[in-house]
Design brief:
With 57 residues, this protein is α+β, with helices and mostly antiparallel strands. It has 1 helix and 4 strands; from the N terminus they run H-E-E-E-E. It has one domain: N-terminal domain of TfIIb, CATH 2.20.25. 11% of the residues lie in helices and 26% in strands. The chain has a 4-stranded antiparallel beta sheet with strand order 1-2-3-4, with no helix packed on it. It is globular. Bound molecules: zinc ion.
């Protein structure tokens, strides 16, 4: 694993919120990516961000 980084900066740079296309930021505890625009949080499990939207169901 990398030092305290959930997602590689390169990957994080190209990822965007599937809901609003906003930029994402890491949140260390609990591990998640949080959209800077709409505030939706996507959990990171085993280093893999789970980009699912509850509203799709
Ligand atoms: Zn968003």
């Amino acid at each position: 694993m990398t030092d305290g980084t959930l997602i590689s900066p390169d990957l994080l740079g190209i990822m965007q919120c599937p809901k609003c296309a906003g930029s994402l930021a890491e949140r260390p505890d609990p591990p998640a990516l949080v959209c800077q625009d709409c505030g939706h949080a996507y959990p990171v499990k085993d280093g893999i961000p789970v980009m699912l939207l509850d509203e799709d169901r």
